[in-house]
């Protein structure tokens, strides 16, 4: 079952979540053409806490999902809250994995997901942030995050339903690339309970080879627990006037849009956000921009999207990890997304059909 991530919707209370499931998720299911639609739920921390502490409310929420033909095998526990604030930027990386609030939130999500999983689900997955934004990060922070994940693992090992944590590398963070995540996680976590969330937008931005990356993950003895099916912007010639003009429309103020440039010698140069990239990068080589693009639709020329990276991941992927379409940027997309349900359904069809074609 391919899911779509509900972090595209802004509600941060249970009533609002149910209203958005009615407004968007049910029409998505109908347009997608399936009797049961997978939703990768994003629950802000207070909602997760309330459901975790009230089993009757959790059972009622499960019944509400069932009545709408919606199934849950995965949660997105990366944003803690405020994901649709006017300005999010680096606030999305708080609380860090050094802070008790991050562990508490994730433990609540374990309880909630255990109560929402279908009976025949092999496991549930929870994606989470790559520890923190890269700076500041100290050896003390490293030890604190390790302790928190060890405590989480002890809970996962005793969970009433099998639930696994999926750590999601992201440009600019402590675990910037998949290689960084493998170096930090290997030998530190129990791979039976903790693995990777492979966000294919983030993978593309890093300019890593997707097939080689999957081999490296397997060689490290870790699993791809979850794939976030997503695409980045690719700019072949960022110095060209038409490219600059097209990119300007994507330099919006809510989310962080990290930029990477591939130099001629293979070095990857970095800028933390699109508005600053033109002053910080030489623009001699291609750029990739962390802006989640709808999978089924091409951006305005001369920009392209990195759906080829996702297609390669689909083709080379071993096993059956959870797949979640995660285009949270519809509200800030140039040109807007007036028919959000129709757009999400089109993305899901693209992901389903592409996965079948290359598997």
TrEMBL record:
<dbReference type="InterPro" id="IPR018246">
    <property type="entry name" value="AP_endonuc_F2_Zn_BS"/>
</dbReference>
<dbReference type="InterPro" id="IPR036237">
    <property type="entry name" value="Xyl_isomerase-like_sf"/>
</dbReference>
<dbReference type="GO" id="GO:0016853">
    <property type="term" value="F:isomerase activity"/>
</dbReference>
<protein>
    <submittedName>
        <fullName>Sugar phosphate isomerase/epimerase</fullName>
    </submittedName>
</protein>
<dbReference type="InterPro" id="IPR013022">
    <property type="entry name" value="Xyl_isomerase-like_TIM-brl"/>
</dbReference>
<keyword id="KW-0413">Isomerase</keyword>
<feature type="domain" description="Xylose isomerase-like TIM barrel">
    <location>
        <begin position="52"/>
        <end position="219"/>
    </location>
</feature>
<dbReference type="Pfam" id="PF01261">
    <property type="entry name" value="AP_endonuc_2"/>
</dbReference>
